[in-house]
């Protein structure tokens, strides 16, 4: 509340002029300036005392206010009482302040009423606040409204606070009025209200103007030293990519003691590569009780291999009420193979509602063979919004053969953007014959980086393509279809079947070099089809010995056609026993057509050998 009344003002004091020819040191200069201020105030006080003794009511009021401001209640009271008796409303207001400070609120309220009735906005504000503290809201609203309507910023803010508490929509009008008159807390609260409205009305075309206005009020409050406003302003600027200015506001807020701003500044510095200074601000925030900063320090020390220090900070985060501390501590224990302790901390975080801890706990239990214990934790995590837990439930039910339940969880995870879940849904839709839905889910999964989804999507699109005209060997067609682009994406990600398929498409359009490269990549990664096709390509180019090497690799991996090719190669070379051996292998590997041909070849070779 205001200490000074309507007529009481602070008088400026002059500074002593430095004598010419003499220079004072900076410390001496500061001392002399302070002396000058004190001397000026003393002179002014003496002037007011003389005027008050001469009966000047205004001097009595101003002198009483000056003494009140200096904490001299005994000296101020007689002057204020005398001026009040003479009808000075500022003195009545300040007398109320004095009595309130002495612990006589009811007597103070009486003098505030006198001043308020006489038109003092400050007294009306003080009286309104007093009535609210007493629980008399109608009277409080009346006096606060009187103060606010006279343009008193504190009165407007107190009225807005009262109306907001009551849920009255008129609160914003007075909060805005207080903010416009320079009340920094009002500016902050108005910004918060606008921010909240912006989040609720994202589809409203006016959202941009609401957001801009909120930022404007944050700026005004922050410029007046409101540390939380500076924090929110920094957050807005960081989201917008204006990191330099965001850092300045975080720094301003952090220096004023806002732990969250210190933590945010630490993350900004870390992202810029300055981990040393980041750690300094995280330390400051963590020491002020910020659990997020303590977690960040724990992670920093864990990265450096300082596990004991990391554990200490994770525990500090837990003590600050941050559930991530228990979760991170569990992760640390799990990395070190301390499974029992990991389970303990996962449980603590999970019981506190940490969904990823619940999912991790379920995985730990599942790995230990406790399927019955894992399921409820997966369910709890999934219901709390963990996408990974929903996917894991799908795997759990699929493993039990409960495909319907599994699909429901896969669909839930896929709807939230889980790549592997979208792949599983796509595969199920293909199995059910719903190609359109299958394609939609496969596109989502492929777009999310799943090589298997890209391959399956390419196969769906490939099946729809009309037959391509045959090309002469060596003729290259540069135009690629969408399915080939998806095959190539999957192949680039290391998908072996996709690599083979890209090789086949390249061979079909006459690009032998590209086909060989793709086949070789797949074969070297363990693809028996890639090895077989590479052998065919090499044989066609006249390199049958090298082709036989790749066919041998394919046949050893279980490729029946490769075994049949080897049987023919050895038969032509006259190595009948080796040919018969590979023919036997082809018969056992199949498929049916290959087995039939291999059997005929084997019988022929057997007759030749027995002749």
Topology overview:
Layout: H1 26-53, H2 57-69, H3 73-85, H4 89-102, H5 105-117, H6 121-133, H7 137-149, H8 153-166, H9 171-180, H10 184-200, H11 207-223, H12 227-239, H13 243-255, H14 259-271, H15 275-287, H16 291-303, H17 307-319, H18 323-335, H19 339-351, H20 355-367, H21 371-383, H22 387-399, H23 403-415, H24 419-432, H25 435-447, H26 451-464, H27 482-492, H28 496-508, H29 512-524, H30 528-540, H31 544-556, H32 560-573, H33 576-589, H34 592-610
Report the β-strand fraction as a percent range: under 5%
Percent in helix: over 70%
Spatial shape? elongated
Helix count equals 34
Major β-sheet annotation: none
Distance between the termini: 120 Å
Based on secondary structure, the structural category is mainly alpha
Rg, nearest Å = 41 Å
> Averaging pLDDT over every residue, what do you get?
89
- β-strand number: 0
Low-confidence sequence ranges: 1-30, 471-477
